[in-house]
Every structure is written in structure tokens, then in C-alpha cells.
Input
Amino acid sequence: MALIVAKFGGTSVADPERIKNVAAILQAVRQNGDQVVAVVSAMSGETNRLLGFVAQMGERPSPQEADVVVSTGEQVTIGLLALALQARGVPARSFTGGQVKIVTDTAHSRARILAIDDAALRTALAAGEIPVVAGFQGVSEGGRITTLGRGGSDTTGVALAVALGADRCDIYTDVDGVYTTDPRIESKATRIDKIAFEEMLEMASLGAKVLQIRSVEFAHKYGMPVRVRSTFKPEDEGSLVCPEDPSMERALVTAIAFNRDEAKLTLQGVPDRPGIAAAIFAPIAAAGINVDMIIQNVSDHGATDMTFTVPEADFKQAKGLLEQVAEQVGARGVSGDTDVAKVSAVGVGMRSHTGVASHMFQVLSNEGVNIQMISTSEIKISVVVARKYLELAVRVLHEAFELHMPAEERTGL
Output
């Protein structure tokens, strides 16, 4: 008998009929002889609706009270799913994050899990019940309701799987697995049967929307296998996210990821002296803005240009902060560009093969795509290009690395 944590996203529980479908899936897991704990999101669109109510209450709503409001979306879903299971003759009981005792820090709307008391869930499982747990939420040590941020239900699912020592966490969504790229851009994209934690972590950070990045970090840290599957094709095995094995290195590249939500900023003519980089990025960090790719070009005249990327939504704020910094450090000026995108090749095979970067750059050059910035890691090569070339870049790289073919049939560079 296996113990499986099954998480269902907002599209999977979007209305009563879909919730009944989820109940059927859980019943089938039980009939297969496995124990199962369900974790659910709010109905699709419900969180945004609740945030809209919060926004109407004032310009600066209390984060603590906002979390009280927003967390009710999952409370509705767990109750309905428990009822749907009971109607099928399956014993079930709903649990809020507080009832489970998912303890978090006090960073309301983006809280991090500190500890999970699994006693109540184990009691329910021992009684033959399916525990139905509200994702996305917890409770602070002071007893206040907290939420984990967008996509937080994925994190809840993986964290509960780790706490319970489950055999696997299944993430049910509206897609049937992880693909070599977005099929909406490249029709030849193929599903990846097995992908390493590190590859999935890179893909999540680079713009892939299949799994929330914190959930992948959790799974990687504790070695918890995660299977991405479709709620609407539950018989399909989907994609398994798991520890790396030697067979994964056969393929040079596993996937092409991309992100349209990029903006580029350049601080020009920066004095080249110790402490300048800290002075530039400290106010950006203090504002909670994530900086991604960074390039520094030092000239022979004691000055440098510093270029970096930020999420497009943070561009105006970051540019304003950078203009203040420019005055303070005596830089020549600030320029920016929101018409850019990031395209990345990801694969653990890069560790043991050379020439991937040069091949990628040559392919883009052949199509007239100019590379503005480059960033690399052991298993990733990212480039910033003009946004108008994004889809072209994705398609030609997908073709160049033969991702339309089974991994064992790819010929390499």
C-alpha cells in the first residue's frame, strides 16, 4: 500500500461538477489499494475575486486581514470535496491549514512553512478517511491565518508529502505533464516522461508555469518524487519529477523554456571602484525586486556599464530607484527596455557534453536573432533577445536540439 498526496489546482475544482470528478479520481486511488491525502486550491478565479473585495476596503489593507479573506476560497473547496466523497460512500474529512497545524512565519501573503504537525492527518488515515486539506494556507505561531503566495497549494502538497513520508506527490492540473516547450508555440513539443529536480527547478525559475518554484525546491531538498498529471486524463501517467539518473545525461538539452515577463535596465558610466555593485543593488533588493541576469562591462577609463534584468511588472519602480542611485554614485545615466524576452536551453546533459552554447548561438545567428545578454549555469544557457523574436527562437532551438524526437534517438550536436 502506497501513501500518495494528490494536489488539485483551481481548474480541477472550478465548479461542482469538476469537484465531483476529483472525488471520482480519489475514490479510484483508494480502490487501487493506496492511501491518499487530497490538497486543493480555491476554485479557478476565486482568489482574484476575493482580492478584489480586499482592494475595495482601502488603499493599504492589513495583510493579516487580507489573508483571512483570501484563505476562505480553499475552505469552500475542501468542504465541497469532502461532501462529494461522502456522497460516493468514501469517508472523508476536511482540514484547514490551521486544523492540520501547518505552521508558517509571519510574512503574510507570502509566508514560508516552518513545521507541519502530521498527527491529525495520520489519525484520519488510520480511521479510513481521506483527509482533504486546504492548500495555500497555514497559521503563524501566534495563531494568525497566513497564505503562502501564488501557487502556494503546490508547496502545501509537496510539504505534506514530505511530512507524512509519502511515496509520491501527484500534482493534478489542466495539462498532462511537462513538455519540451510550450505546445502553443511549438506544435512538435513532446511530453517529458522523466525530468530531474534540477531541470524542473531551472524551468520553473525561467518561466515554465507547470509547477510553482517553491514546491520544486521543497521536492528537491527532500527527494520527494512529484508526478504532474491531468485531472481530465487521470489514467495517464504524466511526467515524473525525480532525482537525476545516468540515463538523463544522454540528452544534451531536455527543454526550451522562455519568459516574456522581462525588462532590461542599464546604469551607464558607473565609477569602477569597490562597493559600487552593493550601492546599486541594495535599494533594489530592499524594494523586494528580484534581479535576474547581470552583466558588467569595465572600460579602460575607470568606468563601467552595469546591465541587469528584472520582472517587467517591477520595471518602473526599479528604474526610478536606479535613477536615484545614478545621482548618488556619479553615473552618467540610466536606460531601459521592456521589449525583451528570455529564452533558455535546459538539460543535465550539458554537464558532460561540450559545444551546446556555441551551437545555440549559431542557430540563433542563422535566423538573424541578436543576443543581448547571456547567462549560464551547469545545466542552463539563457539569452535575452528582442521580444519579437521570442517564438522564432523557441521554435528553431527546439528543432536544432531535436526535442521533437524521443531522447534516445537524438543525434546530438
Q: What stands out?
A: The longest strand covers residues 255-271. The CA atoms of residues 247 and 344 lie 22 Å apart. The two ends are 45 Å apart (CA to CA). The longest helix spans residues 16-31.
